[in-house]
Amino acid sequence: MTGYIILTIIAVFAAYVVFYLYTSPEFGRSATKTQKLAYEQTGLYKDGQFQNLIPTEMKMDVMGLVKEYSNKSKFATPKEPVPFEKLDSAKIAVAPDSLTTLTWFGHSAFLLQMDGKNILLDPMLGDTPSPHPLIGSKRYNKNLPLEVDKLPQIDAVIYSHDHYDHLDYGTVNKIKDKVKTFIVPLGLGNHLREWGVKDSQIQELKWWDETKLGDIKLTCTPSRHFSGRGLTDRNTTLWSSWVIDGQKDKIYFSGDSGYGPHFKEIGEKFGPFDLTLMECGQYNPQWEAIHMMPEQTAQAAKDVKAERLWPIHWGAFTLALHDWRDPIQRVEKKAAELEIPMTTPRIGEQVIVGESYPQERWWEQSLDKPLATK
């Protein structure tokens, strides 16, 4: 009888998983045959998948990962919420014309205010970067610097790729009615259409394509990564980095990427950059090809001709086995060796490009005491 009950539970669970995989809107929408034929004409799509510029494979030693996980740092996740500052919704309601400001929401999510435009970068503002709230890492802080419903009207949302820690179904549903346009890599627009975003609101670009947002020129540039939200859609949408070139300031947003020659190419074509937002966390030697090690982040910043580096892709979720502080400590050391200035603001702390670059080493507070919030 006990065995029968166990088998029944397993069968019911398996049925639920299959049902969820095929019915949940979280997974987005697949490309049509016509779209796939169009993708093939780009030179970036082959055998049903988008391709990286250089060979890119993850070395997955399952037993090694199990051993590594069993020895995982007890500080892989902070014991207390990390320091953050609350945003005043009234003060950011209208983007200034004369200043470029950036506010970090943790991980790779930003509010960029440039040339009178409000722009969100990879706005994953949900609690869990996964297709189901019971799966995966929880956000370090229960609260955001500004709740989603208090965001100002958004002129554009820019996405780097479709992974859950960057493209969040719940966030899209909350912001889509206050967003004028979504600017995304090729194929990602299908997910947005599935979630109720109008086709007229979506611009899809391939690498080296350009578009304009008022006086701002946006260029979709390569990264070395992959894509996919389900079990069978790997690399069916493109991944990218972005060059954001305003009237006064120029910003590079790396998205997710392994180290590669594309950084030098981008630097030669578009550099130097006043500020570079570059991923430095959630790494492991086994997936170094698609997520840089922190030392490579500093080198990549030098390659793109960054005048200042802002390390991102950390500080909100634990998606790898390293100590949550390791990324910033390692990239800081290497950046100093390469003489690349950095800025290290708290989540929610506003940066004014060219004027104010916070330098507080807030992650160094005691591991045994609560981390203070301003």
Task: Please describe what this structure looks like.
Keywords: Membrane, Transmembrane, Transmembrane helix. There is one protein chain. By secondary structure, this protein is an alpha/beta fold. The chain has a single domain, classed as Ribonuclease Z/Hydroxyacylglutathione hydrolase-like (Metallo-beta-lactamase, Chain A), CATH 3.60.15.10. It has a 7-stranded mixed β-sheet with strand order 8-7-6-5-4-3-15, with no helix packed on it. A 6-stranded mixed β-sheet has the order 9-10-11-12-13-14, with helices on one face. Helix 6 runs parallel beside helix 7 and helix 7 crosses helix 8. It starts with a helix and ends in a 22-residue tail after the last strand. The C terminus is likely disordered.
Low-confidence stretches: 7-22, 370-374
Helix content: 10-25%
Largest sheet: 7 strands, mixed
CATH superfamily: Ribonuclease Z/Hydroxyacylglutathione hydrolase-like
Count structural domains. Answer: 1
Number of helices: 8
Strand order of the largest sheet: 8-7-6-5-4-3-15
Given this structure, which CATH class is correct?
Alpha Beta
Mean pLDDT reading: 91
Task: Offer a concise description of the structure.
The chain is an alpha/beta fold and 374 residues long. Helices cover 22% and strands 17% of the residues. α6 runs parallel beside α7 and α7 crosses α8.
Can you give keywords for this protein?
374 residues, alpha/beta, Metallo-beta-lactamase, Chain A, seven-stranded mixed sheet, six-stranded mixed sheet, 15 strands, globular, L-ascorbate metabolism protein UlaG (Beta-lactamase superfamily), transmembrane, zinc ion binding, RibonucZ/Hydroxyglut_hydro, N-acylphosphatidylethanolamine-specific phospholipase D activity
